[in-house]
Amino acid sequence: MSTEATNQPLAGYRVIDFTHVLAGPACGYMLGLLGAEVIKVESPRGDAMRWRGGTDKDAAAQGRSTAWQTQAAGKRSVVLDLETSFGRTAMHRLLDTSDVLVENHLPKTLARLGLADLDQRFPRLIHCAMTGYGRGGDLQDAHAYDVNIQAACGLMTMTGTADTGPLRTGAPVMDYGTALAAGFAICAALLQRERTGTGALVDVSMYETAMVLMASAVTDMTATGRVPKPRGNAANSRSAMSGTFPCRDGLLSLGVNEPHQFNALAIALDRADWLDDPRFATDAARASYAAELEQALLAALQADIADRWENRLRTAGVAAAALRGLDAAVALPQLEARGFFYDLPGGGRAPTLPFRVGPTAHHPHDPPKNLGADTEAILAELGLELPHDP
Asked: What is the mean pLDDT of residues 187-206?
């Protein structure tokens, strides 16, 4: 192992990734980026995401879909059939040598596969169970995907406009939000084990993750009783100068909520006269004349295109961003400067982590593996060999 790898925060920890689809594999991938040894356990048919997801149908037909590759790098791959006694024996030996199990199966599925009561057999194991609604309650065995959680949690009713009706976000944000929550919880459980010597069940709920991602809206509604309505591109601050506005060409997002921000905006837009206008001179006045202020802003923004306003306003200290498509967003030089992307061997770039621990970005040490590429080697390490059919 390289010096760089041994200096990673999770170096020396072994993680068993017994997950499928997006949220679970993403969690395993993130732990691997932080230096953990990650072993992906798949059934003989493999993670279904190998063959679906993304628009590259040829890659999917080869079991290497772009959706699977996104969180597949940096993992060893072993095939175990947990419907068989050999598969269960091998899985138990793996768990006996490991620090963390990440899985996203229903409790009843784990029981059927002989993976119930893991705390009794492996008392130092951190068992991260990721499910739609969490353990306990009537919904612990309910199937759920990102699309279901977005519908169930209330997010869709706040997204869109009165004309469009409820809208799902364009990306599986609940999957990846849950992956981040699980990684955070696993690290906390490992720290606790350092003090106590005992493992823990880390019970991660996609539904509760959604509530956390909407925390300010949840608190406001429960405190006031006012159910939020879809507000389109308006900002949560409800400031007349925060939201997304059309320019001469393109759309510009502004976050102008404080008096000094309004002053900077007015000067940058060559509308210093707003500062002396009694309708706009104070927060209270701007709230009373919000419609008039918005019309004045729209007229001022017609003087230039969104990209140039973005640069000018940022220089003035105003939070501003031109609306971009995903193609332009991933080309932002800031991402390159931070070393954010990992280049996939067959083409394409995968995100890594949205943070650093130390001065450099965290990248996987191995490319995505073919199904079962490390099966024989891992079994040999466990003192086992594949059974041969008679």
From this structure: 98
Extract the tokens encoding 327. 């193609």
CA 1 to chain centre: 28
C-alpha 333 chain-centroid distance = 22
Q: Are 340 and 362 in contact (CB under 8 A)?
A: no
Contacts for 355 with CB less than 8 Å, ≥ 6 apart? none
d(CA 363, CA 333): 18
User: pLDDT tens across 22-78, in order?
Assistant: 999 999 999 999 999 999 999 999 999 999 988 999 999 999 999 999 999 999 999
What's at 234, amino acid-wise? Answer: A
What per-residue confidence (pLDDT) applies to 122? Answer: 98
The Cα 153–Cα 1 span in angstroms is 44
- For residue 152, CA distances in Å to 104, 146, 156, 210 come to 19, 10, 8, 10
> How confident is the model at residue 238, as a pLDDT?
76
Q: Tens digits of per-residue pLDDT, 136-164? A: 999 999 999 999 999 999 999 999 999 99
Say if residues 328 and 319 touch (Cβ distance below 8 Å): no
- Residues in Cβ contact with 261 at an 8 Å cutoff, skipping those fewer than 6 apart: 241, 255, 317, 318, 319
Burial class (CB in 10 A: 0-12, 13-18, 19+), 184: middle
Per-residue model confidence as pLDDT tens digits over 99-130: 999 999 999 999 999 999 999 999 999 999 99
Residue 158: which residues within 8 A CB-CB, separation 6 or more?
Answer: 214, 217, 228, 229, 230, 231
- Backbone phi and psi for residue 352, each to the nearest 5 degrees, phi listed first: -110, -110
CA distances from 86 to 112, 206, 256, 326, 387 (A): 15, 32, 62, 46, 8
Q: Which domains does the chain have, with CATH numbers?
A: 3-213+339-381 (3.40.50.10540), 243-330 (3.30.1540.10)
**257-269: pLDDT as tens digits:** 999 999 999 999 9
Q: Which three-class secondary structure state does DSSP give residue 321? A: strand
